[in-house]
């Protein structure tokens, strides 16, 4: 049996999820040069928000009809937490040394994990998440689970919407201006504080969509799920060129496919028998990252910006 | 500005610190050196993951130990001695387990420790407890090297720590039993082997492989996964291509559940695992668990005549969480310490001697009683002499016992 289409599909689905989360890293970094390490937890909170909505629905409610409500619930929770974090944890430190907000972000990440662990009912262990019933669908020799169709549809739709928003609307152009030069943008009458809040909010909303995809795919969510996914999404953002929204999605897909192919084929390469499989896939993903950064330090789609570190 | 950020930092640190110590020590100095008052307190330490992924198993352990202590106090099993349980959370992390071990050592009233769940945690607790001559009985550790030393595979068995005992059987026995069951009873000869690279998972997978290939079975592929991952589709695709008839997973249920589900999404073969997978949570987290197999130590307590009282008592006590896989073993582990204390006190005119820890340790090797899981005693390595194993399969959404056998 030819496994290649299946492995590519596995990678693509995983990568699309990384990409959705990576948007949050890249937008915030693009505008205020902050690596928001709490973003993985924003993703996790989106998942719990969606689960709460689902549990609150009357039994017998079809999952398909529940999905938009779950997304809405997840988005509300993650955006609220993200905007609050920006207001109370990051804004007071703006203008301070670069490391201060970074450390705050790490602290916030731990605090959010512990908060969910403590206050969400039964969150001390993984909670089960609703899933679509039914058999997998065959597309080009790869079988795709019903739950995975969600991310396959949601990721391009979200990207398209974001692309239009950034290039066509007034607020989107304000965002571009702020990312190019915040001081000049301010002088031109752009409310940069509002733009920054908007960047946090959009990133959080995308993370919530990714969290619903994660739940539908794996059938469970847990308070620690944001750590690994956040780390991978951050890697994807850097790989694609941090600051570039299309780069984030491309980086996510490249990372996901690289992981799937490393799991599937690395052990077939002569001399690499010991370095293949699921345990080494993360190592290969980072090898790829380093190689890309050696050749293109700004990432796959990143622009070379001289006046920024 | 600076003031506020400081405030936030402090808040974050405090939250962290509070969470870490939330389950911490509660020293009570009352009832200490009563001497002739005839009521002395003996504390039994308990270390298990009470939070996190594995808390379902950990809370079952805590409750079962608590039950043993309560019953001993109610029945006045040791006249003049009141037992207390001091439960600490190790979050399934070796470093936390070691800190807990130190806490137990510093509390002079602690004469024995029950736990932990994870073999990896035990590795970090054994030495400090050994140096303090503090007896430790694990209801769940299956890592063979914990009692028989690192060279047990070559037949050079050496007990590394004289203070370490367990009521659970070893990976060597469990892996062999699993291989036998799969090859002979389930009639499956082609297996894909996956482990999570932790001491428990890797050890179990290795011992399964040894016996399975000896029997003539074929390992059609091996892979390792990261226990924190939840997406195993790439590995599953490899399993599908290998033509395996079953997957043996050395690991625990938090990753085992999604692995099994993704496996069955693409190829309909069962997943088999060890006692780390034998939990009700494995089924609640996995909508396609039907047909999966797990082995666990001892006979199912529900089927044991000797366990009827335990189950009834557990129910009466009204614990919120189920006793899970290690309930019976934990009760026996705790009871073995109580029996040892009883022997020591009886030898010393009904009082605790000054060197109680050493005396309890000496008494442990002679402990012999009818426990929940059957007759309880320890061999020269500190292993249980009861090598009963049971294979379970998920049928109609429940773990159902299929075969119980004493291995040797």
Automatic annotation (TrEMBL), chain A:
GO terms for molecular function: L-isoleucine transmembrane transporter activity; L-leucine transmembrane transporter activity; L-phenylalanine transmembrane transporter activity; L-valine transmembrane transporter activity. One of its GO terms (cellular component) is plasma membrane. InterPro entries: ABC_transp_permease, BCAA_transport_permease. GO terms for biological process: D-alanine transmembrane transport; L-alanine transport; L-isoleucine import across plasma membrane. Keywords: Amino-acid transport, Cell inner membrane, Cell membrane, Membrane, Transmembrane, Transmembrane helix, Transport. It is found in: Cell membrane. The keyword Glycosyltransferase does not apply. It is a multi-pass membrane protein. The chain crosses the membrane at residues 12-32, 39-57, 63-85, 97-120, 149-166, 195-215, 246-266, 278-295. Belongs to the binding-protein-dependent transport system permease family. LivHM subfamily. This is Branched-chain amino acid ABC transporter permease.
């Amino acid at each position: 049996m030819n496994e290649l289409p299946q492995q590519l599909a596995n990678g693509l689905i995983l990568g699309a999820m990384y990409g959705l989360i990576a948007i949050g890293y890249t937008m915030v970094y693009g505008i205020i040069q902050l690596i928001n390490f709490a973003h993985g937890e924003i993703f996790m909170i989106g998942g719990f928000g969606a689960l709460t909505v689902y549990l609150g629905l009357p039994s017998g409610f079809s999952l398909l009809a529940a999905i938009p409500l779950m997304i809405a619930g997840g988005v509300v929770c993650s955006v609220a937490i993200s905007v609050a974090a920006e207001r109370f944890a990051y804004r007071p430190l703006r203008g301070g040394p670069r490391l201060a907000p970074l450390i705050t972000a790490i602290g916030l990440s731990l605090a959010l994990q512990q908060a969910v662990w403590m206050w969400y009912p039964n969150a001390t262990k993984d909670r089960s998440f609703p899933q679509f019933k039914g058999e997998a669908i065959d597309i080009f020799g790869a079988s795709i689970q019903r739950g995975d169709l969600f991310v396959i549809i949601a990721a391009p739709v979200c990207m398209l919407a974001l692309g239009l928003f950034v290039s066509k609307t007034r607020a989107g152009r304000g965002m571009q201006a702020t990312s190019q030069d915040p001081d000049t943008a301010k002088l031109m009458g752009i409310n940069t504080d509002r733009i920054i809040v908007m960047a946090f909010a959009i990133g959080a909303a995308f993370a919530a969509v990714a969290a619903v995809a994660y739940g539908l795919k794996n059938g469970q969510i847990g308070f620690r799920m944001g750590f690994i996914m956040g780390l991978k999404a951050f890697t994807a953002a850097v790989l694609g060129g941090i600051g570039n929204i299309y780069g984030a999605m491309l980086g996510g897909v490249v990372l996901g496919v690289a992981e799937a192919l490393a799991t599937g084929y690395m052990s077939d390469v002569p001399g690499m028998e010991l370095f293949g499989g699921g345990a080494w896939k993360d190592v290969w993903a980072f090898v790829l990252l380093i190689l890309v950064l050696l050749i293109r330090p700004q990432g796959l789609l990143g622009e070379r910006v001289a006046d920024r570190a | 500005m600076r003031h506020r950020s400081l405030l936030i930092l402090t808040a974050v640190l405090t939250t962290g610190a509070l969470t870490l110590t939330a389950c911490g020590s509660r020293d009570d100095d009352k009832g200490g050196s009563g001497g002739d008052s005839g009521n002395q307190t003996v504390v039994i330490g308990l270390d298990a993951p009470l939070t996190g992924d594995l808390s379902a198993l950990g809370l079952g352990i805590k409750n079962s130990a608590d039950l043993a202590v309560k019953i001993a106090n109610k029945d006045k099993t040791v006249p003049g001695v009141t037992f207390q349980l001091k439960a600490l959370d190790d979050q399934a992390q070796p470093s936390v387990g070691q800190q807990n071990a130190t806490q137990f050592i510093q509390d002079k009233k602690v004469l024995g420790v029950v736990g932990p769940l994870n073999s990896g945690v035990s590795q970090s607790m054994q030495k400090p407890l050994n140096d303090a001559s503090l007896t430790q009985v694990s209801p769940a550790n299956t890592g063979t090297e914990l009692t028989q030393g690192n060279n047990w595979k070559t037949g050079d068995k050496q007990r590394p720590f004289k203070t370490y005992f367990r009521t659970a059987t070893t990976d060597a026995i469990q892996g062999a039993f699993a291989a036998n069951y799969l090859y002979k009873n389930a009639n499956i000869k082609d297996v894909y082997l996956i482990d999570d690279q932790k001491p428990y998972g890797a050890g179990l997978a290795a011992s399964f492989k040894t016996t399975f290939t000896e029997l003539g079975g074929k390992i059609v592929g091996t892979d390792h996964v990261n226990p924190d991952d939840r997406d195993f589709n790439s590995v599953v695709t490899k399993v599908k291509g290998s033509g395996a008839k079953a997957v043996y997973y050395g690991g625990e249920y938090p990753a085992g559940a999604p692995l099994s589900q993704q496996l069955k999404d693409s190829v309909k073969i069962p997943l088999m695992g060890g006692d780390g997978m034998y939990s009700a949570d494995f089924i609640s987290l996995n909508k396609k668990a039907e047909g999966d197999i797990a082995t666990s130590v001892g006979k199912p307590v529900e089927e044991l005549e000797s366990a009827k009282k335990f189950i009834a008592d557990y129910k009466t006590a009204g614990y919120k969480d189920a006793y899970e896989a290690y309930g019976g073993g934990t009760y026996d582990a705790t009871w073995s310490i109580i029996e040892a204390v009883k022997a020591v006190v009886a030898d010393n005119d009904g009082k605790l001697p000054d060197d109680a820890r050493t005396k309890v340790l000496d008494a442990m090797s002679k402990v012999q009683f009818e426990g929940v899981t059957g007759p309880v005693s320890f061999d020269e390595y500190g292993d249980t002499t009861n090598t009963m194993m049971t294979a379970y399969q998920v049928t109609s959404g429940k773990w159902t016992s299929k075969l119980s056998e004493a291995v040797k």
